[in-house]
């Protein structure tokens, strides 16, 4: 459920009509709903209440929406953060997320990032390789510290999602293969500087089916038994994120409640504290990308609806062939079939071909729905278009939570060397 609804024929975010935001901030602009973020956070937390032997840590996957105001909303809901870079760690700390609720994932943590995270005394490093584990142990020991850590396992399951967002197959770069996990765990657990207290997985994103997760959790359960039989003390298991969200009207995905019930069934005998790293399921349907139609151009078959948002603002369709519902802000009941495209000089800048949608004329406002996750965060300035603005709505109030960065400001950071002047 989200808080983007029609009232009096006009699409609102909570109590704010979207044309008001377009007038004040301009388009394109991402619009997030605080009430929706809070609701999703509460539904997810409620679904996992009672899972594990202690209250679970829910660490929001910052990469899905790193906006500081969004992080602050979730911090106030008691969420921690799953970060994958020093930059994301800085954001989580800036949003007052307590360091002990921060988990650091990622295959390429640099020495500088590891040092920064050690200085901040974060809650858990998710180690993705034997080599990283050795380096982390050394850096911690050199400082007289002990890093809390889990070993990320690659369970070799097919998450059944898009290849580019699948992370748990044997040939993906993430984690240590299950077949080597016990061996790597034994080596790393013996190192000074590391408190290797558990295992972690994350098999992919936009999962439409619980079965691959269940298979992966079963493998992790088996591994925990093996590790304990080898004399290791396992107190923590991190089950990652990945739960999908509906991108099309009428699409039905596993609910947080169904996910929670499966988690509890699969982990009932594990006797560990659980961590979760949801991103999309919290933020996806809490945001829309508000855009204005620049021009309607006749086509050979369907007309081209040229909007002022482009693949640099919302990359998912170009990157993954992803579907985003597109709706008029003030529909008049008529419909059309159109190719919805942005202004960028690349055919990849296509949001939809032959889409049945509301009727639009130049100047009309529309929204791409379900744009709250992996939206603004993937923006670029391609075609010197600047960076898109972001707005957070709370009841009848709204605030700009990320300024539009104009193309001119980006150009200001560039220099022509003397020898070219
Ligand atoms: C991306 C990512 C997540 C979040 O995935 P969602 O599909 O957005 O829930 C969680 N954990 C890790 C390690 C990730 O890389």
Automatic annotation (TrEMBL):
Residues in Orn/DAP/Arg decarboxylase 2 C-terminal domain copies: 30-372
Functional description taken from the UniProt entry: Specifically catalyzes the decarboxylation of meso-diaminopimelate (meso-DAP) to L-lysine.
Gene Ontology terms describing biological process: lysine biosynthetic process via diaminopimelate
Gene expressing this chain: lysA
Record HAMAP family: LysA (MF_02120)
Family per record: Belongs to the Orn/Lys/Arg decarboxylase class-II family. LysA subfamily.
SUPFAM superfamilies: Alanine racemase C-terminal domain-like, PLP-binding barrel
Cofactors that this protein relies on: pyridoxal 5'-phosphate
Subunit structure: Homodimer.
A Pfam cross-reference name: Orn_Arg_deC_N
Pathway(s): Amino-acid biosynthesis; L-lysine biosynthesis via DAP pathway; L-lysine from DL-2,6-diaminopimelate: step 1/1
MF terms (GO), sorted A to Z: diaminopimelate decarboxylase activity; pyridoxal phosphate binding
Residue intervals of the Orn/DAP/Arg decarboxylase 2 N-terminal domain: 36-283
Domain of life: Bacteria
Keywords noted in UniProt: Amino-acid biosynthesis, Decarboxylase, Lyase, Lysine biosynthesis, Pyridoxal phosphate
Binding site for substrate: 280, 316, 320, 346, 374
Active site: 345
Catalytic activity: meso-2,6-diaminopimelate + H(+) = L-lysine + CO2
Residues annotated to bind pyridoxal 5'-phosphate: 242, 277-280, 374
N6-(pyridoxal phosphate)lysine sites (modified residues): 63
EC number, as in UniProt: 4.1.1.20
Name this polypeptide is given: Diaminopimelate decarboxylase
